[in-house]
Design a protein that fits this description.
alpha/beta, Rossmann fold, 2 domains, 8-stranded mixed beta sheet
Length: 383
């Protein structure tokens, strides 16, 4: 069966979509990822066992709200034409849904549709009331054409339960595949080998507790404990400014270190070089509250104890597996308390527990749920 996996990005750092593509092609599906093109990327790219087709948006030079709307309309029109004859359309987040509606309403497509919500789409931080209403309305209209639903956390799955009550649903965590985790020396050049190294990896963007974390590690008591911030600020001005601020602080404080993003196939070796992983997403919108970030499972797969914020999904798993500490709030004082408590505990035991959790939720487990959903959707439609 032909599958169109559609994303509204350039498909350069989308580990969830990449893992699904590999799993589905290994299972016998003929899969193509449809994404956006930009200068420097191939429009048609053959990966190990699937194809990536990037769509050039000629209106991309247009900026501002009107420009973004025109860009999106062009994307939707072009994608709808390219995916009209596949057997299954796998939509990642809400952006491909207008293209699906076009294929269904105007091209009489008989494709099965799977909607994969990587986040709580209408409750993301920064959306105004009109954007929230528009996304909710789009999901509601599209629900009449959606045959299967996937999301990333139990809390988000519950919020969509009423909308997708009559179709197959499943929960697929963003956990990496099981890999052998060995201590490495990737960060030894930053500090001496046996020092305690706290690691934050991922997007260097606001609302991840990074500023509060840095302030805590500037505290005199922690001058000999290292904080490593590995990632990039992305394309937004806020992210770029935060990355610049981190670089400046790393030049002033010997225990704060900045490391640029590394290729995904090297990530585990870097993560394994740390002592403790940090995941301090701030609870300032429902999308954040219900999140279960990739980095949480990446730390666990590397066998690191984890310092997390008090969000329900992470809280539940940390307590169940006894693999870290939950901060009551994301403030410098509470982070300091969490660090002190972690350092008084058996880090090796916590790390072993974290590794066990990662194995229980590994991609090998998640892909079985993906296959089951596909089988159920196809079988239900053929009845």
């Amino acid at each position: 069966m032909k599958v169109a996996s559609v994303v509204h990005n350039h498909f350069t750092h989308d580990s969830r979509v990449e893992k699904q593509a590999v799993s589905l092609t290994n299972a016998g599906y003929d899969l193509t990822v449809f994404s956006l093109w930009k200068t420097g990327l191939l429009q048609d790219e053959r990966k190990e066992n699937y194809i990536v087709k990037r769509t050039k948006i000629f209106s991309s030079f247009m900026k501002g709200p009107l420009g973004r709307l025109i860009n999106f309309i062009e994307f939707s029109l072009k994608i709808s034409w390219r995916i009209r004859q596949v057997d299954i359309i796998h939509c990642h987040d809400y952006h491909p849904l207008p293209a699906v509606l076009m294929t269904k309403l105007f091209m009489q497509s008989k494709s099965l549709v799977i909607y994969d919500a990587h986040e709580y789409q209408s409750q993301k931080l920064g959306l105004n009331w009109l954007s929230r209403f528009s996304i909710k309305s789009l999901e509601k209209i599209s629900s009449f054409f959606i045959d299967g639903f996937i999301t990333v956390s139990g809390s988000i799955l519950q919020t969509y339960e009423s909308l997708f009550s009559k179709i197959p649903k499943t929960l697929i965590f963003n956990c990496p595949a099981t890999e052998e985790s060995k201590e490495s020396d990737k960060f030894d050049s930053l500090t001496h080998k046996d020092s305690i190294k706290f690691l934050y990896q991922g997007g260097l963007i606001p609302c991840r507790g990074i500023e509060e974390l840095i302030e805590g590690f500037c505290y005199q008591e922690f001058k000999d404990i290292n904080l490593i911030l590995m990632g990039h600020g992305g394309m937004t001005s806020a992210g770029k400014n935060l990355e610049k601020h981190i670089v400046e602080l790393s030049e002033k404080h010997k225990n704060i270190h900045f490391v640029e993003s590394v290729p995904r196939n090297e990530l585990l070796s870097y993560t394994s070089s740390a002592s403790i992983g940090v995941c301090l997403t701030i609870d300032n919108c429902l999308n954040h509250r219900y999140s279960l970030p990739n980095k949480f499972f990446e730390y666990a797969m590397a066998g690191l104890p984890i310092l997390v914020s008090d969000l329900p999904e992470m809280h539940t798993l940390v307590e169940k597996y006894e693999c870290g500490i939950v901060c009551e709030s994301v403030t410098p004082d509470e982070i300091i308390k969490g660090v002190r408590k972690l350092l008084s505990m058996d880090l090796k035991k916590l790390g072993t527990n974290a590794r066990n959790m990662a194995k229980d939720y590994s991609w090998e487990v998640q892909e079985k749920k993906l296959f089951s959903l596909y089988d159920e959707v196809v079988e239900k439609k053929s009845r």
